[in-house]
Amino acid sequence: MNYHPQLIVMLTHNDLTVKNAYEVFDMCKHSKAKFWGFKEEPLPLPQMKSLYTYMKEYGKTTFLEVVAYTEKECLKGAKMAVECGCDILIGTMFFDSVNQFCKENHLKYMPFVGKITNRPSILEGNIEEMIEEAHRYLEKGVYGFDLLGYRYTGDSIALNKKFVSSVDAPVCIAGSINSYKRLDEIKEAAPWTFTIGSAFFENKFSGTFSEQIDKVCQYMNCF
After folding, report:
1. Which of 13, 37, 100, 180 is deepest in the core (most CB within 10 A)?
2. 6-220 — its CATH code?
C-alpha cells in the first residue's frame, strides 16, 4: 500500500531512548514533525508518561517502539504503551497474546517481521516469506508493520519496495535512515511512515535538531 511517507522523529540513539529526550522534544515541539516516539529503554516509566503527555499537549501522534523478542518482554512493552497513553505500538515480535492485549486496549499494533536479533537490531529472512508472514498477521487484525529495511542483511531497497507494494496495510520503515539518498529511496518505496533518530543526534542532516527535522519534513513534504 503506497503512501506519502511521513517522518516519525525518534528520540533515540543506537536503539535506546536518549536520557534528555524531554529536553530535546521541548526544544523541537514547534518543528514541522507531527509524529514522535522513542524506545522502551532506558527511561523510567514516570518519565516516559510525562514525555508522552507533553507530546500530546502539542498535538503529536505518539509511538513506542519496543525492541524485544520474547513473549514476556513484548507483552511488557505493550503494557507500557497502554499505561503511557501511547497511540501506536511499533516493534516486538508478533505474539497472539500481544495482539489480543492491543485489541482489548484499542492500541494500534505494528509488529516486526522476519528474523531479528541484537540491539541495534539486525534483520534476516526471505522477502517473500516476510510478506507471507505479514499477511498472516493482517488476518489476525494487526494495524500495520515495523519493517527494519535498512537493518536487512540482504537487498534493503528490494525489500522495502516489494514489501510495501505487496502488503495492504501501513508500513513503517525504521532504522538507519541517515542520508538524502535513503530519503529518495523512501520516497520511491512509499511506506506510510519512516523513522529517524540516531541520524539527527549525529547531525547527518546538518543543523540543530529542530532544523534537521524541518529539513527532512521539507524534503519529504511531510505536511
Report:
1. 37
2. 3.20.20.70
